[in-house]
Q: What sequence folds into this?
């Protein structure tokens, strides 16, 4: 593999890992019961730092809007699917459908950030970390 | 009360997005500090909201409404343009939240 391909593979692995950490974060925050359960609270803090770190690594290579879309999507789908496994929750058909609409909406929204005129006009040069308009391009 | 906690968590999450953008890859200490503090506050209020909401529901509401807020604030105050795709995303999220609420799942 070329260096570029290798760095891209690593970035996508980091992004998937960040998504998995985000699921862990969501579940742990839920399990912490308002941060009254010590173990779950500590797990939540660890996942919070891990997901931030893995996401920041991934976004050095992957386009910010694509990165956020994938990350948010994995986290939201994972929380909906695994919540009922860990807690006293149910995923009914109606709930699943409306959650899917919301999750598609947020992925769509993140991807829409990419279609800015300057992003389209700019040549496909390597992103400059120092020059990036910011994590969420606000 | 859980909707209020969720709203506060969303406000802090929007702050995280704005602060992270100014933190320049976490090289700017002040904005990095604001990012982490806001993230901690968002997490705390999300956990309060999740005392009532299911994890999957509360988390999806939190991240998606924050996403809508970031897009709307970006258009209002940060000179970003709303386009048809952003409008579709916003409508999907709002429609999903309303549907979830009307179906009694939230």
A:
């Amino acid at each position: 593999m070329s260096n570029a391909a290798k760095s891209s593979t690593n970035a996508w692995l980091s992004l998937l890992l960040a998504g998995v950490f985000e699921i862990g974060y969501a579940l742990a925050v839920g399990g912490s019961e308002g941060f009254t359960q010590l173990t779950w609270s500590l797990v939540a803090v660890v996942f919070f730092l891990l997901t931030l770190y893995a996401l920041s690594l991934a976004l050095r290579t992957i386009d910010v809007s694509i990165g956020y879309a994938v990350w948010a999507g994995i986290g939201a789908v994972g929380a909906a699917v695994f919540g009922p496994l860990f807690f006293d929750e149910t995923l009914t058909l109606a709930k699943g459908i409306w959650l899917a609409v919301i999750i598609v909406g947020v992925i769509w929204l993140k991807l829409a950030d990419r279609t800015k005129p300057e992003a389209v006009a700019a040549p496909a040069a390597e992103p400059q970390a120092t020059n990036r308009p910011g994590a969420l391009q606000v | 009360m859980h909707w209020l906690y969720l709203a506060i968590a969303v406000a802090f999450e929007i702050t995280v997005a704005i602060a992270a953008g100014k933190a320049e890859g976490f090289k700017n200490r002040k904005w990095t500090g604001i990012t982490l503090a806001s993230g901690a506050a968002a997490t705390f209020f999300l956990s309060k909201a999740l005392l009532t909401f299911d994890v999957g529901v509360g988390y999806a509401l939190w991240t998606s409404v924050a996403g809508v807020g970031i897009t709307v604030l970006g258009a209002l105050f940060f000179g970003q343009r709303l386009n048809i795709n952003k409008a579709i995303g916003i409508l999907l999220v709002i429609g999903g939240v309303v549907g979830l609420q009307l179906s009694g799942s939230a």
Summary: The CA atoms of residues 34 and 59 of chain B lie 22 Å apart. Residues 2-102 of chain B form one domain. Chain B touches chain A through 54 residues (CB under 8 Å). Chain B has one domain: 2-102.
